[in-house]
Amino acid sequence: MNKKVFRNLSYGVYVVSTLDGTRPTGCTANSVMQITSEPASIAISINHDNYTNGCIARTGTFAVSILSEDSDPGLIGTFGFQSGKDVDKFDGTAHTIRDGMPVLDDCCGYIVCRVIDKMETSTHTVFLGEVTDGDVLETAPAMTYAYYHNVIKGKSPKNAPTYLPEEEAAEPSARWVCSVCGYVYDGEVPFEELPEDYTCPVCRQPKSKFVRK
């Protein structure tokens, strides 16, 4: 089976957030879909290994921040390539509490849900949520997963449903790759000549985290 066929399905790029006690936490996700319109409900898919999964199960609520093409790509790295168990991802990240849930300020819209059901798969939990709040925050186009891969040149976190292990082995040789998120530097300036304060545009890791492949 060629798993790349799943990339032809429509995906967005989102930050799913909830609370760890009183502390906000969350993770990057690409599997969010509307299920019904009346009453409005959506489903999200969160990997069992994501700390956010257990927090959603405990609180019974979650929010979806819909990233736009103008959103800072660093948000994807902040929420997608480190664990909320070890890091306060919202520390220094502008956000607003909406209907009790943390929502990123740098997004084009948000949806807040109360969990009404869930389904377990071998690797992910699918949470079904009844929408309790939502709004459009800006008019910039929503970021698609294709835009993330083709324009931002980002990679899928290993916990994402669309992660393809063979892509890591297929990278061309003699390129500088971020060891944290897999971003491949392809700028016109030779990597060695970049300033020492250069950071990965996806996960904001320093230049020292890049390796030559």
Automatic annotation (TrEMBL):
InterPro entries: Flavin_Rdtase-like_dom, NADH-dep_flavin_reductase, Rubredoxin-like_dom, Rubredoxin_dom, RUBY_RBDX, Split_barrel_FMN-bd. Keywords: Electron transport, Iron, Metal-binding, Oxidoreductase, Transport. The keyword Iron applies. GO terms for molecular function: FMN binding; iron ion binding; riboflavin reductase (NADPH) activity. It holds the Pfam family Flavin_Reduct. Residues 173-213 form the Rubredoxin-like domain. This is Flavin reductase.
